[in-house]
Amino acid sequence: MSQSAPAVRPVTEVQRKLRGAADEQLAQVVALVDAMPDRGAADALIAPLRARLAAIEPMRPMSITRLLFRPLNPVITPGPRWRPGIPAVPRTALSVIGHAVVGQLGPVAASVQARIAGRDGKEHAVANQIGASLWPLAATVLARLPIPAEWGSATGLPEAYYAEIRANIAAVLHQAVPLVQRIRDAGVSDPTPVVNDILQATQAAHPGGFGIVLAILLADGTTAGPALLSALALPGAQVDPAVSLTLDRAQHVLTAVLPTVGLAAASFQTTQVAALLDAIEVPGARPGLRAHAQRVREMANEACQSRLAQALEQDFLPKLTAADNVLDDAAVANLEKDARGLRRLAMAGRRFGAAAPYDKLLGRTAAGMCASVSNTLTRMERLRLAELLVGTDAALRLPAA
What we know:
Number of strands: 2
Strand content: under 5%
Order of helices and strands: HHHHHEEHHHHHHHHHHHHHHHHH
Strand order of the largest sheet: 1-2
Helix content: 55-70%
């Protein structure tokens, strides 16, 4: 007689199923984990999916610890992957350090708790406003914070690593207000002056934390170029580790995140990676970094084409061939939204290589759609979709059924 299956599935099996879950399903799981008073092992379930969660931004309650470390989000790394000397912070250290810092904030912590009660973490403007009253004080507290008694048991890290991790967090928190100001002002002004000020102030006051602050700036497409140019111009600045770490993160996004997120998130992530690669190809960057960037560019081109083909074959085309006799206005609007998303993803992908593969994928879809007879879409609706996919001029040249 065969042995019955265990009642509890291994964590890896559950994680495999979560990787294949839709965004809405994943958001429900995260909400359940967030609601647990003691997350414990449940937190490990979503650990491999954090990059995807950052891309889709599900609703998550704003907590004081999450708010405290918000400026560090681009450089938080899983505990087992953290090593001394890299410009990152191990996630396993955040809970114990956050608890110790909040315990030293007194009335400020109570005030912040009251202001964030019932708030969603996606309320970025509110989070940045409240955080601006928290981060400078937290940086000062952290600078004199002794090693917490539970450090070893809570983090799994030797006590010898505490000073480096504390210094990195403090360097970021000291510059957190201008860092989020840079995010708020992105697209409406030239970020170069504030980027220069951030890096120069960090090198002067927290030289050991220069790399982690630079890595945060490199992770944002609006500041990657100015940050790298500014860093390369600063004598003695440690640039390479931050660039290498950011490129490694970009590779993870391309291979693990891009295939699993929706079109809007995929386009955003692709554009961010393209901006980073463009920045690294400046003449002042070292040959090794440029070679690394070129390898990532080739990977990005393949990943973007694959994601575009996936979206066409698994989502857009099935909707076009739906069995319903008539598509209502909402369904047609949804198709138009998808067509815009496909075009944006293709335009972002063009930045990695030749335009022809992207034009071919979209052009073939548009031509087939216009040449076929559809029971669900009028000729004008098909022409409109083709226009959104390939542009007005190209759509007008397509043969009609």
